[in-house]
Amino acid sequence: MLTKLLKNLLLLSVAIGGSTVYAADLLVKVLSHKGTPLTDMVVYALPLEGQRLPQSTEKLVIAQANKTFAPYISVAQRGNSILFSNKDDITHHIYSVLGENKFDFVIRAGKQVRQKIVPSAEEILMGCNIHDWMSGYFLAVDTPLFTKTDSAGIAILKVNQPGKYSLVIWHPQMQEQTDKISREITVTGANSSHNIQLNNVMAEIPDQKNSDGFDYLSTY
Amino acid sequence: MLNTKCCISFLSCLISCTQLGAVEFKANGIVDFRLSHNDTSTSYLQGGYGKFSSDSSAGIALSQIGGQFSATWDSGVSANLVLNGYSEEGESRAGVTEAYVKYKSLPSASGYRWENRTGLFYPHISLENRAFAWASVNTLNSSTLNTWLGEEIRLLGSEIKLTRLGKMHGDPYDVSLTTSVFGNNDPAAALLAWHGWTSSNRQTFWGQARAFPQGPAQQTGQVLEHQDSVSKPYLELDDRLGYLVQLDWRQHRKGHILFGYYDNRALPFIVENGQYGWDTNFAYASAAWKLAPGLQLSAQYLAGTTLMQMPSGEDVVNNSYSSAFVALSKQLDKHKFSVRVEEFSVTDRDQQVRDNNDEYGRAATVNYTYRLTKPWFLSAEYSVIKSNRPSREYLSQPAKLTEQQLQFAARYFF
Prior knowledge:
The complex is a heterodimer. In chain A, the strands form four sheets. In chain A, strands 5-11-10-7-8 form a five-stranded mixed beta sheet, with no helix packed on it. Chain A has a four-stranded antiparallel beta sheet with strand order 12-2-14-15, with no helix packed on it. In chain A, strands 4-3-6-9 form a four-stranded mixed beta sheet, with no helix packed on it. Chain A is globular. By secondary structure, chain A is mainly beta. Helices cover about 5% and strands about 40% of the residues of chain A. Chain B has a single domain, classed as Beta Barrel (Porin). In chain B, about 5% of the residues lie in helices and about 50% in strands. Chain B is globular, with a radius of gyration of 21 Å. Chains A and B meet through strand 8 of A and strand 1 and strand 2 of B.
């Protein structure tokens, strides 16, 4: 609630002109084709003028919890590894079989597995070969400037280097004409806000639930 | 003999599989305690015509103790053994119901996955018996259709299943095609012919023989005098393989529809030690659909024929048969209510007047289940079966009969 309030205040301050700070906040609001806020949309900014940005130190953990990938969508800077952490009391068999980054491993209850992602990897669809309803996405980006929208559809990127950037929106269920929505922007050092609205309806997001609702089914 | 062979090959598979990487052992199962009150005749399990598993109102019975044991290697290979047993009315028995090695591949980059089961296994026809050790999920008694599958249909062979995974094609459904070749199911449908459709949770074990009602055709000098007084469903009599094909459609989070065809391709005029080959085939369709959160509609239909002949080629039993049910199940928090209605028939198409297998009946089941704790389920279930079976008159019973059963169960899953 407090975060929401602060964000709204920030929105307001951006709207009335903003202040000149060295680290500019890039506030991005992602809206559906009907104008409603969209949660968990990946937002990132790619430097277009060779701005030198420090490598992201964010540790990416993808949990297997309640037989789901948590979170459903993860994003990290290219070259980082993923730590898979099985919080369930059962075994999972995680795989990625599409694209350049193929891997599979069995992860027992309560265990962790670190998986290196090849540098050329971009979008990775992950599944579990034991629980077919489980699916998750991972996006590797060429920038440390990445995040996901919150429940109000808002994402904030803190940009230290002024210049031109490509602001990109991505979600696996987007049904736009291109794979991603991108917009060229110029960061001057002042805060700025950008509203990005999708043109088409999003495809249904899989809810990663076993439809049976019974815990003792034979899956052998 | 066959049992020993099976066990040896199963164990040798287990040993050779130890080369396949890290292994995980799992044991799951069910313990099912029951108290029942029955208004019926001698149970079909005792060689009578009674359509339920019990014909008395005895004390608490251990209606099912089932365990499924698996060793799964990281490579996708698993060895699986399912044992079932019971202790009821002074009789305690246990045996193997399934034993097979399975391989499940990873999906390919094009979104296809294949699986293989080799050994002794159920075809995946039943939408009811999906809990551990083939226990029924929503009701205590399986439908007549699935009770029959548990009594006379088992595949000793190999199955290949190819699945197109929708999530890798952007589709909200998976489609699978399964084909199996199998042996050792040549006498299938003999018990269905002679005791008709039944409803219980009892499965036959590998190698088990089951008695059936003896009529005038079994008397000396009559057409069935060489038939043994028990039937053994899992025999290979003619060295001919049968086959099964099945198409599954799984709509993600909504439901499951499947169609299939079974043919044991048995030669109907073979007889060994009183056990005949029965040329049995049937087509089936099953569907389960989630109408609303917690509300599921399911239905199954099966129809087929069976033929058993004298070595001379004269038809002894030539039946067509069908069974269908529609069930509705509603879950409300820890409570689950299920109702099921069924219709079944056997049509005797041969000329043997002393062996009338005709039957027509309807059944209804009402079940209430309360989930006491995570693994404990308490159930009350009422079942009624009305049927017309002229062969009951061979045993001085009325052809038209209404049978009822009230059961209380405590089921524990682990």
